[in-house]
Structures are given as structure tokens and as C-alpha cells.
TrEMBL record:
Cofactor: pyridoxal 5'-phosphate
Protein name per its UniProtKB record: Aspartate aminotransferase family protein
Keywords: Aminotransferase, Pyridoxal phosphate, Transferase
Record-linked PANTHER family: AMINOTRANSFERASE, AMINOTRANSFERASE CLASS-III
Coiled coil start-end: none
Membership in a protein family: Belongs to the class-III pyridoxal-phosphate-dependent aminotransferase family.
Listed Gene3D superfamilies: Aspartate Aminotransferase, domain 1, Type I PLP-dependent aspartate aminotransferase-like (Major domain)
Amino acid sequence: MTRITNHLPTAELQALDAAHHMHPFTHAAGLAQKGARVILRGEGCWLTDSEGHRILDGMAGLWCVNAGYGREELAQAAAAQMRELPFYNTFFQTTHVPAIALAAKLAELAPGNLNHVFFAGSGSEANDTNIRLVRQFWAAQGKPDKQVIISRRNAYHGSTMGGASLGGMAAMHAQGGLPIPGIVHVGQPHWWAEGGEMTPEAFGIARARELEAAIADLGEDRVAAFIAEPVQGAGGVIVPPASYWPEVQRICDAHDILLIADEVITGFGRTGNWFGSQTMGLRPDIMTIAKGLSSGYQPIGGSILSDRVAEVIGGIEFNHGYTYSGHPVAAAVALANLRILEDEDLPGRVGRITGPYLARAWAGLADHPLVGAAETCGLMGALQLTPDKAARARFAAPEGTAGLRARERCFANDLVMRHVGDRMIIAPPLVISEDEVDMLVARARTALDETLAGLRADGLMVAAV
Ligand SMILES: *Cc1c(COP(=O)(O)O)cnc(C)c1O
């Protein structure tokens, strides 16, 4: 069997990496200085790097390895499909068994009348598809002005021109002339940072009503859709107040605005149900899926459409698609992955066992002097770092200073935890055991202690005025 082997020492790999490999979302010169960590292998929730460290992966890769690393069945599904039919397109009135089987399975798993799948290679591509889809949905019904898509500040919907425009990341909009026209952003339901004196419940309603105000401002007949993540992921695992989603759903219904639930992270068990929409009680018209769909073993994404949307789009020729839409190997692996999630009832396990277990263990970190809030939803978690928890204060130091230090201390303690500004976030594989949750939380606490000591030593436990 041919495989990529490595006999090089870490320093040489790092030098080659720095010389030739451009990393996403990375300051290349800065990384070259310290050298990238080289990951060699994965098993369950554990990674092994080129120095032999065993690292607990609190981020499931990039929110995607839901079934855990080292699943032999998925390797076999890929190999078998490559031998049978490694590629065929679905453009020209042809189809193949893996795409058919996966679409049918997704229609069965997705709630309500979400029964039709348009495949893409990633979450970003799927959201680009959604932009054209919802605009064409209204145009095909004689409403060509119903074009604007409303999204939220600090949302993440991908990195293509369309995906990044839908997203509300200021740092991304600052590069390359984004957002594209016809996309409007309203406030996010991030009570800790933006709720001021309001109760979380009142704030949730207020943020939902910003959507209604934007619709009134633009005119209902100019707004095509609202897109949102049921729980914001890359924005910092922001669990909305309970009042938020019911009000958003009411507003979308009242004004005939399509609701796109971006389930790229929240789908496939992450929140304790198959989809975050079920956890949050939403009835989306379209769902964006990717990541956990294949547990990251193959790049695949898609849009799941309701009967109503599919009927309209099916009545025209939709001039859109990707060479790898429904790629047979990716589809076969995704199907085998869904079988694992189903056979091991991983969504149910998160909902009944590991989610509540993490919630309790994680809440224990709220007593740490550096932690202003410890929140979870299923197997997503966030710690808000603060110099003064009573005041919900930000640091005087530039945003992300404390978070970056905390992430470095996590790495040093063989735990992958990510930072978004001064929020620390986790989303471990759904196969994580209770013992591993305890280990994760213990390592996080050690990292917090070390971070706090460093911040104090450098005079950085100071609130912004
Ligand atoms: C990761 C992500 C995307 C983009 O998916 P890619 O596969 O990286 O293109 C879109 N939406 C959400 C909510 C995501 O987390």
C-alpha cells in the first residue's frame, strides 16, 4: 500500500511548511518564526504530533470530526467507492447511487418538510448556492426585487465571496472588497458583550426586533431571506437567550422571509439533536450543511431545501452547480458516517449524557477569577475571559491578548482549545467520554491558572474604561 511517509525531523518539516505552504487565516511570517505544529495521527478524541505529544482535541479538528478519528469503516467506504466509481458528474441528466442514497438519507433525518438536497463541496460553497437559490426563488415567482439577504454581525458563513459577505466578520470584510451588494447585517444575540443593563430575555427580543426593523426599513418586498447559525460557532459559541429564536421565527413567518439555518456546525448531533434547528425550535426553509456531515473525512456540503423552495426551483433551470456536487466518494463516506452517528446514537448521547455532563463540569469553571461566563449547548462550550466579572468588563489590552495567551497555555498542556478574541471555545468529537470531559476541564483549569498568573505578572488584569 502506498502512503505518505515522513522521515524528516520536525524542524525540517516546519521549514518546508513555512517556505511553501500558505495557511488559512494565518499571519505567515509570524508562524514561520515559531513553526507550525505538525499533526501526524488521530484516534478517537486524541491527536499525536511529530514530537510524540498526545493532544486532546477539544475542537474536533475544525468542528467537524463528530464521529472521532480513526474510523476504519469510513476508510473502507472511501476505498470501496473509489474502486467502484471514483467520479461521475450529476450535471447532465445522470446520477449515481451514493448521491441518491445520501440525499434520501438526509431527507429522512432532516426535520419537517426539508426533503431536497443540493450538494456542494463545502459549507462556503453551499452558502454561495443559497444566495442564488433564495434570490431565484423569489424572481421565479415574479418578485425580482426580493433580493436582499439579512444576516448578523459576527456571524460566520464561510470564506468565499458569498459566504464571507453573508458572514459578519469585520476583519474579513476589510479585505477584498466585501461584502458584495444586497446583504445587510443586524446585531447578534450576544448578551454578555452587548446586553448592557437588559435582562438576557429582553435583550433576545430586542435583537430579534432588529431584524423586523431592517425588514421595515428595506420594505418586505425587497427582503429574500434571513440567514443565521442556530448557535454562532466561529463568532465565539454564542448561545442566544431563549427569547431570541421564537421571535425571529415569528418575524420571518409574518413577513414571508425565507429562513436559512446555517447548520454547518450545529448539524449532525453537535447540540444534542440531529440539527440545531430542533434544539432551538426553528422551522427553516433551507439548511446549510457540511463539516459533521462526513465527520470531516471527505470535503462535502450542501443545502437541504423545503418542499416549497424545491418546487419553485425545480420549475426553472437553475444555472448553478459544482464539478464535485454529490461527489461519489464523499457521498459514500458521508453516508457511512451518518450510519455511525445513527448506530451509536451520538446525537442522543450528546443530548442525554455527554452534553449535560459537560454542562455541569464546564459550569464549574465559572468560579475561576478569569472567567466571566461559562456556557454550553450540547458539546459546544465557551468561556468568556474578563478582568472583572461583576462588571462584565473587557480587558484594557487589545482584544484577544488574554485569549491568545490562554490558547498557548492550552497547547502547552496538550489540549486544543480555540480563542475568539477573549472567548475560549470548545467543540470536541461527539464520541468524547465522561473521563475525557473531566480531563478536558482539568487541563482547561490548569491553562486558566497559568494564563491568570501571566496576566497578573504583566499587569494585564485591567479593565477597559
Ligand atoms: C465552517 C463554516 C462554514 C464554512 O464551511 P467551509 O466548509 O469551511 O467552507 C459555513 N458556516 C458555518 C456556520 C461554519 O461554521
